[in-house]
Amino acid sequence: MAQVIQLDDLREEIIIQNKHKKVIGKVYIRPDDYNILNRAKEAEQNIEKAIKEAEQATSEAGDEQDDIIAVITDIDKKIKGEIDYLFDYPVSKEVFGNTHCLSTRNGKYFVENFLDSIMPVIEQTVTKEVASSQRRMDQYLKEYTSDHLKQGGTHR
Question: In whole angstroms, what is the distance from residue 81 CA to residue 73 CA?
Fold first, then answer.
């Protein structure tokens, strides 16, 4: 029989509620994953590009509904792939379900509403972890600072 270990992957749960306070999903982020901010920037750029591509395709397609549907379906997959990349796991099904990520509410795309809601939470969570990590590093590095050495401290 295989050995089994439990590993704390350090992910924090973020609950997604609708406007009626009903839980409609959850996502997980790792506060110590400093690359998430880089992935977010890259994903947002790719999503913006995909949105422009969708808008252009729909304006140029005219009455060709089948062409529009094919393009929009492909772009939906691309954008959901970017969301999965951002979170570093397949989360888009949890966030969007079967709803198209370019569905609109009050003229704003679903994916834009999601990103506008989640990005401040990600930034706050990572910033808090960076500050915590810096305090810990400062504690261990204080004996190497010039102030410590001026006060008669030594390196080990």
Answer: 12
